[in-house]
Design goal:
34% helix, Rossmann fold, 5-stranded mixed β-barrel, alpha/beta, 263 residues
Length: 263
């Protein structure tokens, strides 16, 4: 592969090198959100900023932990994951937002993702469509345990990953609107909890790179509740979702230390 950095020794897009990040990395779409997440780490410092990729590194329980923004959508998310793996990332949790789909999934709830419908393009350049996009069971269990110990309302299950935000919200205006609506109805009938834009790409890229990837999402609102004439509260405070991811990482770090001590 061509070295686009021309010998600088850093990953081309994220602008980082080995030693800049920890094995544990929180991924989030919005670069501005990284500042907030970094506050939950001890002694966090910004270690990189390039394009949509902002990275802070600090510690949890004495273990180095990082947070990196991925931008919107699968292409930029997969690039971030690939390059973070290259420099030592091994365990990743996506902290993001989504729109609820099932009527009991309300604004302010948290969705812990077990798998994702691959209705996006990035993952198709990694694996045939028959290969499932699923989360790592260890991360998922840690997130569920953290959720049980909190006061948040949470759901566990499948989400839908897409490439077009407005294809979801205004499908009737698109040339392929009838196809989008037909698919949406299918996902609803299959019990999809929510819709978002990065998870499938991250799960598939992680499977290919042999690293662990999990996901927890804040539900911003639910357009299906709106259509059904039900109350549709909007919630934009992502802090409970961040806390969930941080506590899940804390649990995994503590469990790791116990195993090392026992051995």
């Amino acid at each position: 592969m061509v070295d686009y950095t021309e010998g600088k020794g850093k990953e081309y897009h994220i602008g980082l090198k080995k030693g800049d990040i920890g094995e544990y990395v929180i991924l989030t779409g919005d670069p501005q959100r990284c500042v907030n997440i970094a506050k939950y780490l001890e002694n966090a410092e910004k270690v990189g900023e390039n394009r949509e990729y902002v990275t802070y590194t600090g510690t949890i329980e004495g273990e180095k932990v990082s947070v990196t923004s991925t931008g919107i959508g699968g292409p930029s998310a997969s690039i971030a994951l690939e390059e973070l793996v290259n420099i030592g990332g091994k365990i990743f949790i996506r902290v993001g937002t989504c729109g609820g789909m099932q009527l009991d999934v309300e604004g302010g709830d948290i969705v812990i993702t077990t798998g994702s419908v691959r209705m996006e393009g990035t993952s198709r350049e990694y694996a045939p469509i028959e290969f499932p996009a699923v989360s790592d069971i260890t991360i998922t269990n840690a997130l569920i345990e953290a959720a049980k110990e909190s006061d948040v309302k949470y759901h566990v299950g499948i989400v839908q990953s897409k490439d077009s935000f407005y294809g979801e919200h205004q499908p009737e205006k698109h040339p392929v609107g009838s196809r989008l609506i037909e698919k949406w109805e299918a996902w609803l009938k299959m019990g999809c909890l929510a819709s978002e834009m990065e998870t499938a790409a991250l799960f598939i890229t992680g499977a290919y790179r042999k690293v662990k990837v999990g996901c927890c999402l804040l539900v911003l609102a639910n357009q299906e509740r709106e259509r059904a004439g039900l109350p549709n509260v909007q919630q934009h405070d992502i802090n409970p979702t961040i806390k969930l991811a941080v506590e899940a990482i804390r649990k995994m770090i503590r469990e790791k230390k116990v195993k090392i001590k026992c051995n």
